[in-house]
Structure formats: structure tokens, C-alpha cells
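Hi everyone, sorry if this is the wrong subforum. Our group has a chain we'd like a structural model of before ordering constructs, and none of us has done structure prediction before. Sequence below.
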Amino acid sequence: MQMTDRGLLALARHEGIVPGPYRDSTGAWTFGIGHTAAAGAPDPATMPRGMPADLDAGIREAFRVFRADLARYEEAVLRAVNVLLAPHEFDALVSFHFNTGGIARAALTRHLNAGDREAAAEAFLNWRKPASIIPRREAERDLFRDGRYPGGTIPVWSVDRAGRVDFSRPIRRLTENEALDLLRWPPLPRSPVLEPAPRPPINWLARLVAILTHLFRRN
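Answer:
Right subforum, don't worry. Here is the predicted structure as C-alpha cells:
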């Protein structure tokens, strides 16, 4: 099971995109779309500081790392949950785990596995620190419970060499189509076009000799 396109976009909106290493609210070095060393390579603490010289390339790299991270978080949710999930429920759980890393020990998972979806939905709000994360928890709860996906563009934020993000104004806003194109980049290779094998060159002299021989035999 994988996140839906709408789920991927919702998660990217929650995280935002910072195309250089920065320190998150806990002080952990982070890159791109919420990537930390806990998810695997690359380690943001070892990446060049500040904004990339090529912003487009930096955004593409953020989405490349994001795609690699998602597979790990999707697998972790599937290991922790032993009941069937609707696509919007799965999207909400992956978003929660991507942010907290707590799917295996969260009360919401215990409630869900016990068959109490309402209690599971309310337990999203157990993870509410720092206070700035509460709107995200509420959005994940609403998505899990009601299938309500957030909308809007995806912000790209600038960062300085000290790892401080300027949240006063995004330097770019990606539309849904732009973000989906980046998530699917590079495109799958096309199947090779099968062409007929080239014909061998015609030996006109041999053909002329064969024709003359045939005529002489008839006469």
C-alpha cells in the first residue's frame, strides 16, 4: 500500500520545502521535505550550508530524497497496523509517522488495532508538542476520520548558512501539478521502439547472372 497523490501533496504542504540544510523546532538538522538523518542518507548535518546555487536543482533533490524516505515510512505503518485501512486513513498515518516517528508506540495505533477508530482519531492530538504542531495534528485527525484533504500550494522557504529558515515569505509556491511532476521525476524510461531488421544489400550482379542463366535454359 502506498500514499495517494493527494496524501503526498498534503504531507508536502505540512512540511514545506527548504532546499538547504536547516535546524527544525527540536534543533535537528533537516533538509528538503522534513528529511533527517534518522530516515537515512543524506545526513543534512554534512550538507553544504545555505541555499543551493541552482534553486530548481535543489528543489528536485528535495523531492528525490522525499520519495526515498516515503517508502520507509509507508513500510513502518504497514508493520505497525494490523487492520485494513482506507487510503485516506493510510495517508494520515504516514503523515503522522513521518513527523513523529512514533507509529509503533502511539496510543492511536493501539486503538486502531483494537478496532476503535474514533479513539484512534482523537489520539492523534496526544502528540501536540510543540504547540505549533497542533494544527497539523488536527488536520491529520480530520483526514483519518473524515477523508478531508487540505488544499493549496506548497511553499518553498529560504535558509541561511546558519540553518535559520525565513518563514516570513516563501520564495516560491509550487502548484499541485508542479509538485506531482517533481514526485514522478525522472519519468519511467520508454519501451524501445521495435524497428524491422535492415535488409541485406542486394547483389545486382548475382541477380542478373541468375536471370540470364534462367533465360538461356528456357531457350
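For your construct planning: The chain is about 45% helix and 10% strand. Residues 26 and 164 are 13 Å apart (CA to CA).
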